[in-house]
Design goal:
Elements: E1 2-10, E2 13-21, E3 27-34, E4 37-45, E5 48-55, E6 62-69, E7 73-79, H1 88-94
């Protein structure tokens, strides 16, 4: 069972991706928290990936993602630091569209 939280700065927004991979079927309750406020809440079944855009506040940002299931709880946290700035052209090249 793994959880992965990735963040990138794009167009003055923090592009957030939270991915959970596991071998058990079941439902998950997911919460994405940005600066101690719930930015998104939802659910998923099985392995999943969510992507959200968050505002980039002045200074360091704190982002936490948590997934809670019947048999496990996973979380990932990012506290401040430098985010790589990615332009739209760079994203197209990374995905093979460019």
């Amino acid at each position: 069972m793994t959880a992965d939280l990735r963040l990138r700065l794009q167009d003055n927004r923090i592009r957030t991706r939270f991915e959970v991979e596991h071998s058990r079927a079941g439902a998950w309750q997911i919460v994405l928290v940005h600066e101690r406020r719930i930015a998104w809440r939802g659910g998923a079944r099985g392995s999943f990936e969510i992507e959200r855009a968050l505002p980039d506040f002045p200074g360091s940002d704190a982002v936490t993602a948590r997934a809670t299931g019947a048999l496990a709880a996973l979380s990932a946290r990012w506290l401040g630091g430098h985010l790589p700035d990615v332009s739209n052209a760079d994203i197209g090249e990374q995905q093979g569209d460019g």
